[in-house]
Amino acid sequence: MTSSLDPIWDIDNIQRLSMASLLDFFNRFSLGTMAVDRQGRIAWIHDKYAEFLGLNSPAEALGRQVEEIIPNSRMREVVQSGKPIMLDIISIRGHSLVITRLPLRDESDRVFGAFAFALYDDLDQLRPLVSRFSELQAALESTRKELAQLRRGRGTRYSISSFIGASAAALELKTRARRAAQLDSPVLLLGETGTGKEMLAQGIHAASARASKPFIGVNIAAIPETLLEAEFFGVAPGAYTGADRKGRDGKFKAADGGTLFLDEIGDMPMQIQAKLLRALQEREIEPLGANKVLKINVRIIAATSRNLTELISAGQFRSDLYYRLNVLPIALPPLRERVADIDALCEHLLEQIAAQSGMAQRELSVAARDLLAHYDWPGNVRELGNILEQACMLSDAHVLDASNFLPILPIAKPSFKDIAAERRNGLRRSVASSQPRLDKVISETEKNLIEAALRDSRGNKSLAARTLGISRGKLYQKIEQFDILFNK
Ligand SMILES: Nc1ncnc2c1ncn2[C@@H]1O[C@H](COP(=O)(O)OP(=O)(O)OP(=O)(O)O)[C@@H](O)[C@H]1O
User: Fold this and answer.
1) At residue 255, does pLDDT exceed 90?
2) 113 and 181: one domain?
3) 424: number of CA atoms within 13 Å, CB side?
4) How far is CA 55 from CA 98, 170, 268, 363, 453, in A?
5) Would you say the CB of residue 234 lies under 6 angstroms from ligand 1?
6) What share of the chain in percent tops pLDDT 70?
């Protein structure tokens, strides 16, 4: 038991002792301490601090306004606000001091002054902390910038080496892409849907001298024809009422100095083709409603999954625009022509699926690899990714087997199994006799799938295209090709 006479339990005594000990601590370990009263007059100052301030003795400072001794002092602010300033850096007589200022309160919680102590006169001691903080701030800033760039669609996510594949076809394609990155002429990327055209376009931009400038992608098939002109060339202020009253920049302006990626160029209406050709030839654009032209400096990378020469013959694509764009053509082979890359692509895609879903990364059995290598992949790498993702969602197995893929591969199963077995046994029929059957199976399956997707989305083509993992332009093309009728 403790008695009220016990000095340790004498509350007043403890308070007094702790104050004295704290003050002693500050005086010994800090560079200096000081207190002011409610009027901002120096009420107390430690010898060390007085000496540091160039005074002969503490008495010289007592009763004087704090700013007379320390011109940039913020003690008065603490007295007036009643709030501490925990960390501040001030410069006195050529030294930087780290200062902490605290308000002093009486029993009724009224502020009667302020107390300050200077922690360091040598910021070197804080340097590791400050430099770590600066590093973190710089990292945060650069991540913010990257994120903002991606949000504005001006950045690139891919480099040429992100294009997975070591087959002869993939290596040749990457060599051509690297060469194209060294030049500034238009590039035309030709390949089926999902073969990596947009990815390669980003890679070429990222490896080019324009890498620090914007990369702007436009999917022509996804923009209604009536809006395309404004979307490309912009609108002058006052040209329209409503939302465009103030005018707005088009994609050409947004890409100025950088690269403009024109996806699905084969879907561009003839009237806009003429304006695009003029913009490329003259290197200037005329925003809608403006009566002056703007100089532009943009590199064009166009892409299409359609056969442009056929479109020219059909009178749907201007031959002069084709020659203007076809300066550096790069053909992206479909997956079925670079089967050797499927294993590496599967590994890469499974790694991506694991990272995005938070699930453990899966592997493929030999039979599963064999099966995937024998499918024709009309949707190419995008379809391969979708199939792998579905298989991962539907099974918990660490090693995915052929049986995990058979039910989800969009092809008539018995015929596909036959074809796969046939190929494995080296009994592949001659191209002339087997190709029509395979094509027919694929076309029928494609048609069925598209009809089902359109039914499920009640005619919403964007949604159907997304479900199928193809672009809207591709969907339109397929609807036309298979003569699909559907009810909205
Ligand atoms: N060689 C590759 N290596 C890794 N990923 C790839 C490769 N090719 C394509 N992909 C991936 O497949 C998907 C489709 O690629 P991308 O959009 O570049 O194809 P695309 O040819 O532009 O298709 P579309 O014509 O339908 O727009 C993307 O997720 C992309 O990352």
Assistant:
1) yes
2) no
3) 15
4) 20, 79, 82, 77, 87
5) no
6) 82
Could you tell me if 62 and 79 lie in one domain? yes
For residue 182, the one-letter residue type is: Q
pTM of the model: 0.59
**pLDDT by residue (tens digit) across 22-32?**
777 777 777 78
Instruction: Tell me if ipTM is over 0.85.
Output: yes
- Closest ligand 1 atom number to CA of residue 158: 31
The token duo for 146 is: 């990257």
214 lines ligand 1 (CB under 6 A): no
Q: Same structural domain for residues 420 and 473?
A: no
Atom of ligand 1 nearest to the CA of 471: 26
Q: How far is the CA of 191 from the centre of ligand 1 (A)?
A: 10
The domain containing residue 178 runs over which residues? 160-333
- For residue 165, give the ligand 1 atom closest to its CA: 1
Residues 28 and 101 in one domain: yes
